[in-house]
Structure formats: C-alpha cells, structure tokens
Amino acid sequence: MYASAIKIDKTGVLLAIGTTTGIVQVYDLRKGHITHNFTNNRGPIQSLQFHPNPQKLLLISSSEDLTIKLYDLVASSCLTTFQGFDATISGFALTNKGMSLISSSYDRFIRLFDLKSMKKIAQLPTDEEMHAIETLTFKKRDGNVISLLVVGGDSGVLKTLDLSDSAAAMIEHPYIPSQTIRNIIHLQKEKRLLIVNQDQNLILLKYGLNADGKLTFEIDSQMSAFNDEVIDAKFIKMRNYKHSQLKTDHVVFATNNENIRVLNPLTRELQFLIGHKDIVMSIDTYGPFVVSGSKDNTLRLWYCDPSNKKYLPLGTFEGHTGSVGSVFFAPNKLGGSVFFAPNKGHRVVSASVDKSIKIWDVQKIINSAIRNESFEHRVISQALRTTIPHDKDINCVRFSPNDKLVASASQDRLIKIFDSETLKPVMILRGHKRGVWDISFSKYEKLLASASGDRTLKIWNLGDGSCTHTFEGHENA
After folding, report:
1. Which three-class secondary structure string do you get for 272-315?
2. Which of 201, 230, 271, 414 has the fewest beta carbons closer than 10 A?
C-alpha cells in the first residue's frame, strides 16, 4: 500500500493520506495516532482537500473509480458520493465560501455541486481536457464579491469563468504560449498562482483586477525543475556590448525541447524563448542577439530589450528543407560595436541535414532593433547565398574570425572552406576516417581544429591545407 495523495488542514493538526488501494486515513499530528480510516473507494485516491473552514471538519476525496466523496470527520462517515463522471477526475476545488464544489475531468466537462443539497447544479462543456482547477475570490470597488474559476489544460492557456454570472463565458488568458498545464497551486496570501507545466517548468503569476474590473495575469518569475538533455549553450555577454544597459551576462541554452531557455546566473531568473515548433538543435549569440536553428527547418532571431530585459522575436528565416543543425553569427570587429559597416551587412550562416549551407543578411533587422525603430517580427525566405557542397549531413558550420571564410564539417568525413562572400570553395581538408562533428577557427593563427567520430582531433594549416597535428586518446567519438 502506497500513498497517492496527502493533505494537511489549515490548523496543522490533521493529516489526510490517500492510498493506491483506495483507503483514506486521517491522523492527529499532535497525538500521533490515526483518527479515521475510510475504505469505501474502489480505486486509488487522486486528490484530497479539507474544507476551508476548519470548524466544519469535512474532507473531500477524488478517486480513480470516477467518484468524489465528502466525509464528515465528526460522524466518521461518508456523507455523499458524487458520481456521473465519464472519465478520470483531473481536479476539484471549493468555492462560494465552501458551499459549492467544482470539478474538472477528462470527459471535457466542468461540474458544479451544491454541498448543502448534495446535488449537481450545473455542467459546462469545455473544448479541451482540463488538468488543473482553482478558484479566486475578489471584492470589487462597489463592494460586490465575485468568484472566478481558473482552469488549465492541454493548450497551455489559462481560462477563467465568472461563477457569479450564470451567463458568463469562458475567457482565455494567453499569458504565455506553453505546454500542457498540469497543476495550478493558489498562493492566496501572496496573490500568486504557481503554474506547473508538462515540461516541468514552474511559472509564478501575479494576478489582480485592473481599473475595468477585469482579471489580469503577469509573470512574476519562472523556474525549470528539469532541463533534460542540454544540446547547446552560449553566454550572452552583455557587459561587452557598449550599447546595452544590461550589466550581467545571461546563459542561453537549448535542451531536448522546442523552447530556448535564458538564465540570469545572478538572480536565477529564467526566461523561455518560444516560437520554434520542434527541438532546437543549435544556438549562437552576439551581444544581446540570439540566433537558433531547429528541427522545424527554420532559424529564429531574438533580441534582449535592455529596457525590460525581455527577449523579443525579431525574425524567422525559412528556406531549409531539413533540420537546421548549426548556426553561427559572422564576427564583426569594427570598433567593438555591433553597428556594422554600411557597405557590408551583418550575416548569419546556417547548415542543415538537407546538405545545404545558407548565408542570411540580418543587418536591417538588428539595426532596427538597436535603434528602437522596429521590433516587428519578420519572415525572411530568401538567403543571400546557398550552396550544397556535401554528400551527407552537415554537422557544423563556422565563420572565420576575420569574416572572410566559412568552414563546414560533414558526415562525409570532409571539411570544406569557402569564400564567405560567394560561398565558392577555397579548400578541402581530407584526413578524418569518420564524420566530422565540430570545427573551430583559431583567433590568432591561420589554423582550424576539428573533432571527428574517428576519435581524433586534428589541427589544420589553412595556408596549404595540411594537417599539422593529430591528437589521439579518446575512447569514443
């Protein structure tokens, strides 16, 4: 027998435990013994909740037998069983000062029960499966009290319903496009909602009524409980960017997920860059800008607005027909600024499993953002240059530090060097016996380093294309 649900009442005296065998037990924590043992459930207990008024001594449970039960702890009996659910009960909450119970279930219905008459009084259909449910109570300026239902489900969008208005419709609050909402925890004293998403992100929302008496949500903070596999990570070096007002570096990283995560190491504040439709495979940064490549065949460009430290999507680059596995900003050393030479647009290079390399012009987009002229999201479908130089997937692509060359590494065991203006081949480096996974230009010499599946590292002389050193010793790729 294992515990499947646990709850402590407001007084901190009573502890309720629900088990996988359908038993509900109540303990007196002060005296250290069991006070109640209810055995009338036919399935594991999913959730438990004490009545908000401790003097009433009522306990509510939901079970996988598709029922909700109300227990009287004074009489040690089950007062009633609410039935009629056609699928698993995903949650329940009390409203109307504890006089009503409202539930959600996977049969896409929200049901309202009156605890005085012990009957169902309303049933509302929904357009998705709801996984989490809570209630909020507000006192308006005119003195009227309103009760609002808050639910979250598969769409990842919070929805509210005014329970005091029988004609009210469900209102959506897209505070942030997200994955499925699995749980909503109400922090009543702090006036916050803690949202738990399917990807194990925790989002703390501030809520309140605006001047028009409408409910509003604002993100207070975000945390990640699980990052999964980290595919790529880069620093955003704000302190080295003279046009930024930000004084701290951020860390941007891609996980086994379509959302990019940005972490402030000092404050632990986490942001999510949402836009890609599939796993992000590669990221690169330049000042406050982030470029990303994804399995959705696109690149995206982001900008950290120094006025609020929030990241804005600036552009989507379409044209690849396969997963974009590598992206890289062209370096620019003109006065240490990211204001680019007027006769030379700043660029991004990308490589894909479609065996193509593309160079994109991002100068206009970036300059508009820096000068606060435009933060409009643009869709770019035409690359400056395109070439298909390899016979197999391209794993990595890089600009040289002087911006004159582009290098690519492929599963065909070759490293190819191109003129960055024309993408015409300049040199082919041969020597690896298996696919080449990564390459890096030297900042100070005409050298290039490569790492391969043949378990070696090689150093190449870009003057004549010769391999100057081979390092062995790794046991795997």
Report:
1. EECCCCCCEEEEEEECCEEEEEECCCCEEEEEEECCCCEEEEEE
2. 230
Phi-psi region of 247 (alpha: psi -120 to 50; beta: other; left: phi over 0): alpha
Query: pTM for this one?
Result: 0.71
Rounded to 5 degrees, what are φ and ψ at 457?
-110, 140
Residue 465's CB is within 10 A of a number of other CB atoms, namely 16
- Collapsed DSSP state (helix, strand, coil) of residue 365: helix
Q: Are 305 and 312 in contact (CB under 8 A)?
A: yes
Per-residue model confidence (pLDDT) at position 226: 67
Query: 385: closest CA among 427, 413, 425, 441?
Result: 425
Say yes or no to pLDDT of 369 above 50: yes
Rounded Cα distance between 323 and 351, Å, is: 9
Per-residue CA distances from 215 to 23, 219, 430 (Å): 39, 14, 64
Answer whether 332's CB lies under 8 Å from 346's CB. Answer: yes
DSSP H stretches of helix in 345-403 = 363-370
Whole-angstrom Cα distance, residue 291 to residue 338? Answer: 15
Residue type, position 68, single letter? I
Query: What is the rounded distance in angstroms from the CA atom of residue 79 to the CA atom of residue 260?
Result: 50
Query: pLDDT for 295-304, tens place per residue?
Result: 999 999 999 8
